[in-house]
Amino acid sequence: MIIKIIIVLLLIFILFNLFRALFIMVSGKTEGRPMSHFLGRRVLFSVVVLVVVIAALKLGFIKVNNSPINATAHIQIQTNTATPHLQSANTKQLLEKQSAYL
């Protein structure tokens, strides 16, 4: 549980740095730290989050959900439902009756 809290806090810190860079970009302030400083922090902490998630998965702190690709799929087989008509000298086709509630 502590790993998940750490990951969430790091993601919030990433968003905080992203919005600080946005504020500097929109306001156009040149004094203080440049926008690239906060964007670089965001990238650095994104890499840290990725490393923490991979390490937590490998160490077994976080369990992965099963992939839906490997699950057994329900296979539906459709059989031929048409009934063959007996041939006769009559050239008029007989109407097929089908229920709408099949």
Please explain how this structure is put together:
The protein is mainly α and 102 residues long. The protein has helices spanning 2-27, 35-59. Helix 1 (2-27) runs antiparallel to helix 2 (35-59). The model has no long low-confidence stretch (mean pLDDT 80).
- Give the end-to-end Cα distance, rounded to a whole number of Å: 50 Å
Order of helices and strands: HH
Helix fraction, binned, reads: 40-55%
Decide which structural class fits the backbone: mainly alpha
| Radius of gyration of CA atoms, rounded to a whole number | 32 Å
Give the integer mean of the pLDDT values. Answer: 80
User: The biggest beta sheet, please?
Assistant: none
Tell me the β content: under 5%
Tally of DSSP helical segments: 2
Using the alpha-carbon principal axes, give the shape. Answer: elongated
How many E-type strands?
Answer: 0
Which runs of at least 5 residues are low in confidence (pLDDT < 50)? none
